[in-house]
Each structure stands twice: as structure tokens, then as C-alpha cells.
Amino acid sequence: MNPPLAVHRAPWLLPISQPPIADGGLVISNGKLLAVGRFRDIVRSHPGVAVIDHPDVLFLPGLINAHTHLELSHLAHLAKLPAPASFTEWIILLIAERAKAAGDPEAEGKRIATAARAVLAAQQQHGVVAIADISNTGLCSSLGNEFKGRLLCFSEYLRLRADAVNAALLRLHAEPDSNYCTGHAPYSTHVDLLRGLKARANRLGHVFPIHIAESSAEIELLRSGGGELRDFLEHRGLWDDTLPLGEGGAVNYLHRHGLLDRRTLCIHCVHIVGEEIDLLAKFGAKVCLCPGSNAYLGVDSAPVELLLRRGILPALGTDSLASNPELSIWREMRILAALHPALSPANLLAMATLGGANALGLADRLGTLEPSKDAAVLAIELRAPARTAGEVQEQLIQQGGGCRLHRL
Ligand SMILES: [Zn+2]
Amidohydrolase-related domain: which residues (predicted)? Predict the structure, then answer.
């Protein structure tokens, strides 16, 4: 039997789809939001319905972590080291760590899964209700039942040489339609394979996440075919001179090769210029920023104000523990706030919720508190009283992750 209807009342309600509401109320029915608004309006439209008071909390939609790699959680020691000298150095370190022969593969597998489970549990504790994970090993798919939210698991294809494309496409064609598949980046997945992956994602209506413009070395490679990434690829026997070069950076690369549309999720977007932001806006492409990872790797910070000015609301992602010492969307908001003082707390909260829902194609269910959406509502206790909507949002971001939180 369904629980009886109740009006939940809190001193503040942050719907994201509209400004904060003082003395707010919402009604939940069968796991969905039935009504959201001012308490006095809600009780008037729901006469006789019991009221449950939550006197010390605010209501917020669940957070969304739009980019991570759970299978790297056991490499947390990497991001505790001093930052590597360059992005390419970090890739070399990461590959070496992943390749370290484990004495017992079964025990190693268990160790990796245990670390990933701990990250998932922490995400839940921090109020995350949807995660997009990218995996080379399929670990994510085995963890789905352990996360009380939406865990989107993307299998990542990495093949840069032209002579490896056909075998990869054959493997792709054998994937069940229910599997999400994607490419890693323009410098690590051959353009023909990226095209095959994107065509499949479009046919199935899947989101297509791809790392782009994370480092200046990537842009140098895409423009000139040179630089430290070229040296790295050559050294590993991955360079075969088939990477199509051109002006205009990584977004332009996606555009030139038909990879840019409203289901493309461009992860990082640190080294992009104005005309590329215009392209992102024109094609309705989505953007996910990973400020914590970018800060650790010292690759600079994405032009978030320019994105917002062009009407693009980015999502936020933590990336993995191998490049970010702490996986918390609250901390991602604080890092952005520190680096970009012009951003408002309302902008940051919208990125962490609605931006993520848009990016993952989940905006019909998550991202805001609106009737008919999922009742993925966080009830968060602020440590100090806040008098204005601005104070509430500011405090929430500064304390988030450290304050008591439960799901309604
Ligand atoms: Zn990543």
C-alpha cells in the first residue's frame, strides 16, 4: 500500500527551476513530486493532508556527478602526491600504476571493487543521486545495484591507430543495445572509431561523453601534430600519422567530424576559445566541468563565465581519485567559487543539479524540484541560521558535504 500523502514543510526550499522559496512545501506521491511551492499555497491546494515539519533543513534536488571513473578509486595515492610536471606526465604515471602486476589478479580485482564501492557510498552520503561513470574494465556495471540512484556506466573505447579500428568496430557492433559506449578523447580514439561510436549512440538515443580540451598539449597536437602528447604516443607505438589535423581546437575537431550535437557531453573544456563556445551553444552540446581534477593537474580552469553567458549551463564532475584528492560535488562548487568569484551561488547549485541532469539526459526526472519529477529531494541541515535566500545558498555551498543530510 502506498504511504498516505503528506505535505513536507521546510524553512527554505531551493527548486533550482525558480528562486529559493522561504517557508516552502512539497508533496510526494509514489516516489514523484506532486506539488512544490510556498507552504501556504500547498496546504490550501491539499486540504486535510497531514503536514510533516522539517524545521531545521532546506530542500534541494539531489546532486549529479556527471563524470567519474570508479575503477580508478584504488589509485587515490596518486592525487596525494605532488602534482606531476605536466598532463602527459600524469598519463604516463596513471598507465604505469594500472599496469603494475598484481600478485593475485582475483585479490587485486577485489581491492579495486572495494575502493570503488567506498566511493559510491561516499557519493550517496554527499547527496548524489545520479552518476555517469566511464570504465575500460566493466567494473561499473557490476556495482549498479549498490547505488540508490542512477548509475550510468559507459564502456570506453581507446584505439588511436587506424589498423585497430575495424576490430574495435566489430566489438562495438556486438555490444547489446542497452550498453552505453563512448570514446576517450580525440588524441586517444581514432576519428573513424569515434564516428562509429557516435553513430551508435545517436541511433540508440544515448549520451556521448568525451574528454576534450583538458590540456594545452592536446590542442597543440590537434593543431600541429606535435608536442609532448605526440612524443608520448610515438613512444608507445600509437602514432600512425592518421590523426586529422586542423585549426580551431578540440570542439572544432568534434564539429568537423560530425561528432557535435545535443547528446555530446564535452568533458573538461578547459582550453576552448570563444568561437568554440559559439559552436557548443549552436549545436546544443553539453559541457561537464571537473574543476578539482583540473586544479590538481594544473591544466588551468575552464571559461565558465563565458559558457554561462552563451546560455550553456555546465554540469559538474569529480573525475576520479587518481586526479582529484576528494570526490565531492560540494567541493567542486567551492573550487569554482574560489577561482571564479563572479559566479553566483545560484549558478553553482544549478550546475550541480540541473546542469548534470541536462548533460545526462535525465532532466525529465531529476535536476529540479518540480511536479512530476522524481522525489530525489535532499533535506539538508544548515549549521547556522540564514535570513536571506542569498545567505542560504552561500552557506549551503560552504558547508555542503559537512552538514547533516538525508533523503526525504
Ligand atoms: Zn575522465
Answer: 60-382
How far is it, in rounded angstroms, from Cα 130 to Cα 112?
21
Q: How far is the CA of 165 from the centre of ligand 1 (A)?
A: 22
CA-nearest of 295, 407, 306 to 347 is 306
Q: For the segment 234-284, what is each residue's pLDDT rounded down to a tens digit?
A: 999 999 999 999 988 999 999 999 999 999 999 999 999 999 999 999 999
Whether 102 has a pLDDT exceeding 70, the answer reads no
Q: Ligand 1 mean position to 26 CA, how many Å?
A: 36
47 CA distance to ligand 1 centroid (A)?
49
Ligand 1 centroid from CA 135, angstroms: 9
Predicted confidence at residue 407, as pLDDT, reads 84
Q: Where are the alpha helices (DSSP H) in 179-290?
A: 191-204, 216-224, 228-235, 249-256, 274-283
C-alpha 147 to ligand 1 mean position (Å)? 20
Question: Between the CA of residue 257 and those of 49, 202, 208, 253, 297, what are the distances in Å?
Answer: 56, 14, 14, 6, 28
Cα 294 to averaged position of ligand 1 atoms, centre (Å): 10
Tell me the CA–centroid distance for residue 283 and ligand 1, in Å.
Answer: 23
Q: Which amino acid is at 188?
A: S
* Vertex 81 angle, CA 77 and 82, to 5°: 165
**Cα(82) to centroid(ligand 1), Å:** 19
Q: Which CATH code is given to the segment(s) 63-359?
A: 3.20.20.140
Rounded Cα gap, residues 25 and 8, in angstroms: 5
Distance (Å) from CA 69 to ligand 1 centroid? 6
Q: How remote is the CA of residue 319 from the centroid of ligand 1, in Å?
A: 5
Distance of CA 19 to the CA centre of its chain: 24
Neighbours of 99 (CB within 10 A): 7
17-57 pLDDT, tens digit each:
999 999 999 999 989 999 999 999 999 999 999 999 999 89
The listed CATH number (3.10.310.30, 2.30.40.10, 1.20.120.520, 1.10.1740.10) that belongs to domain 6-62+368-407: 2.30.40.10
- Evaluate whether 124 touches 147 at the Cβ level (below 8 Å): yes
Q: Please tell me the predicted confidence (pLDDT) of residue 108.
A: 86
Which residue, among 142, 144, 133, 125, has the nearest Cα to 63 in the 3D structure? 125
In this predicted structure, what is the pLDDT of residue 2? 66
